[in-house]
Structures
1.
Amino acid sequence: MEDGILMMLNSGIDEAAIQNNLKQFLLVLSVSLSVATLPQVFSWFRQIPYTLLLVIVGLCLAFVDVRLADLSPELILSIFLPPLLFEAGWNFKWLDLKRDILPISLYAIIGVVISIIGIAFGLNQVNGLSLTTALLIGASLSATDPVSVTALFRELGVGSRLTTLMEGESLFNDGMAVVAFSFLVGLPLGTSQLGIQPILLQFFSVVGIGIAVGGLIGFGISYLTQRFDLPLVEQSLTLVSAYGTYLITEDLGGSGVIGVVTTALILGNFGSRIGMNPRTRIIVSEFWEFLAFFVNSIVFLLIGDQIHFAILGENLGIIAVTLAAMILMRALGIYGLGYFCNSVANSEISSQQQTILWWGGLRGSVSIALALSIPVNLPEREKIIATVFGVVLFTLLVQGLTVKPLLDKLKLLNNEPLRQEYSEILARLTALNRVLGYLAQVETRPGVDLEYHRYQQTLIKGEINRLQEEIDQLQKQYPNLMGFTNEQLRSELLAVEADTYAEFVKKGRLNRELAPFLEADEPHSS
């Protein structure tokens, strides 16, 4: 009887907890979506990137002591991190990665090491923190999270090369940071050994397992989707692969971050070509765009909401030293490794681009999650968390809000409004020409009203002539648009060639995809 009562009580408690969590989730989502509408209502807010606006609103809520939810590190790492990584990897072009693999690899690997050592040295020497605490702060802050910066890049029309470098570094240094952090946490717990050989062994083991599991799942799903054409099933498979890869890799002792990135790169660049038709690819891409927006909306709002101002005030000195060391080490890594890449591999990363890579290296949700995941029995845990929160807050608000003026000062902003207008006119002209061609095909269809048919034909021809005049006028006024048109045409031709090889592989006429002929003389984007 007592057991039955206890079971009923436990069941009631569980139901109440679930209901409470659901209410918290809906509250967070409602606030996030309300923030998303602010720029549409008040034009001034359009100057602030959406993710930074969420952080500011979260800070305002924290200031009046309104807490939306408890920010669990396991929740971020296990639920929020996989979709963010997968979306970035899915949209990352292999050709861009291959072109800049050297600088991206150096920034992601050597850059992380420089950052950890520099921050730890500064905190140890200036603030007298123990080496363990200093190293953990450095490892937590070694992962860049430029979500808001890359979103700003796309909005302002910054060159694709700069976006590739920043996103590529972030994709891989997340994995490096998690590997380094896991090793350093294990030192005081006795699960890791200090020494070159143990460090290298653990590094290659963790990275190797991540790549192996990610590759197996990525290629497996790629070939599986060749067998059928069911858009919703294929979309669901990508979602399962993101979470499945992360959880399986972590259970096997590998890096879930590297596993998810590997799977996403394979599915986005190979699987979506050989196993999905163009319509399905669009459906899947739109799904991941929505999911990334959804997850970012929650994460960045909660980052601001979880700030405790009293704890930040107690650790201002440590935060200031950490910031100075982090920015200095970031400059050393970016400019030093950039110079090496330009000298050895002729990477042609300009000093202006390096400056944006330096200042745009924001910290975000990964750093917060790593700091919060420190075991409670480790000394100075609260000090580490407060320092990481303070630094993340500075990078998001100060660096994040000053990237746009810096881009403008360094003359790295393309004339995006003009390009967008030109692209829209071209798209409308192409669409109307297709409509005109279709009208010619259905002219003799039984039951078609010829008068209505001629009216539509005249209407469309008039609009086509107007659009053509507008294009001619823009090209005459802005001659550089001709170069933009050629870039677009080149991308379209390359896509047609690559899709044809993928179609041949899908039909069994080729056993592997051929490297596109047109990529051989691919020009660098500025």
2.
Amino acid sequence: MALEETIRKHALKNAFDYGKAEPGGVVGKVVAEFPDAKKDMKKTMQLVVRIIAEVNKMGRAQVEAELSKFEFVKKEEGPRRWELPGAEEGKVVTRFLPEPNGYPHIGHAKAAWLSYEFARQWKGKCHLRFDDTNPEKEKQEYVDAIRRDVEWLGLSFPGETYSSDMIPEFYKYAEKLIKQGDAYVCGCKREEMSRNRMAGKECTCRGRPGEESLRLWKGMLKGEFEEEQYILRLRGDMKSLNTVMRDPTLFRINVTPHYRKGTKYAVWPTYDFEVSIADSLDGVTHAMRSKEYELRDELYYEIPKRCGFKPPQIYDFSRLNLKGTMLSKRFLKPLIDEGKVMGWDDPRLPTLIGLKRRGIPPEAIKSFVLQFGLSKVESEPGWDALLVEAKRLVEPSAEHYYFVPEPVKVSVKNATGETARLKKLHTPNSPVREIKTTSTFYIPKTDADAVTVGEIIRLKDLCNIKITKKAKGGLEAEFAGNESVEAKKVQWVSEPHIEVSVAVLGDLFIEGNFNPGSMKWEKGLAEPAVGEIQQGAVVQFERYGFCKLDDKKGGKFILAFR
């Protein structure tokens, strides 16, 4: 794909997702997919700006139509063992690095499984390290959620560590950089610093003597200064085409109490410093992360190099998005705070706890996320791709039951009160369940509305009936034999029965906006045996779908997939 076409593809995608395309959301994806774009970043940026301007003039419908011409889902084809530079059998070390600032979602599952599986393939190790150096956002609640969901996914790590336990080491290497002249304390206001970085202009603080920067740094550690009064910056290259390298921030003052460390530390590292040094200290050989960080890779390599480490090999893989939903907490948390969804475990959410509540088995998530492999191609499959995998895994063991949504009563004259003998499982040697019947049946409203007087229909796996009357209160019919005939097959329940409700799920977001109709409840009747189902079980309501019992007391199910 030519460079301009690649830019257009990602500009359209960015505009579709956020209403308006922005260069920052496009250029990283373009460089990842078209590496030659790095050779002349000035030209690349000019093209990005021009094409974004064209895209932003389009209407929503035109953007969507143009976007449909591009492919965003691609399964990796290749060897069973993934190949990456520097991989040696028995020596590969990777890590899963979740930040405990929210509940993990399916994107985290992809990151975890890729790192875990790559290490497994090369007979190496994968560590779990909590990236917890932002006191303002992190909570023990989220640590517990990550632990629980990681275990549910089937991942097993040799242990867990915390970046916040490495603060003394981070301070040591920060001081080393200051003494080497590779870092300096800056007192510029945020707005001034931003303007200088965009203009490629050095600030006066950059010329501060090392002794003075060291004195100010120690004052920062002692809590002598206010937040934003000083920061520690790397002495990078203010003329670099990669703006990330223009004297980036390494440490900030933050007096917010930390969920583990309390007020012990007042100075915290940025992600760029923390992740590169922690990975080096942990002996990570391959640091795998989503390619949104690709422009920061240069900085990831530079910081350990100046501290005397050989940095790990970075591999940037594509982010996973699901059509019809959002993975970012900035979209999901407001829905929870405003009561628009039931919580982080709402079955409409892409959170792992939400998928579990919906009835998606963890093996389906593993298979789904690994099918994309280490591809850097953007992937945005629909829910169906995941649900098909879930159905494949659940179908052999899901018990079958009869359920009728929006039931309409059918009184059958001369009914023989037969007992239906039906398979309980979708297997040749399935055990059999029995349903006793009377002269009263219930069929779905859609079927009741469609039948005509005089028509013969077949009550599935039971008998034939002939419709004799359609009335406001229901249908009347007469028994028409047991033999199989060419007639419409209709789902049914008889008496006794139980009342149940099923939550039917739809897309949580439509065109970027919350969809209030994303969950609708359907009331219906089910055969008596449904009352014996254990809470949490996934069963198949025949000719309806696979449903998970969410609330046994309330008789509430969730339609997991069809």
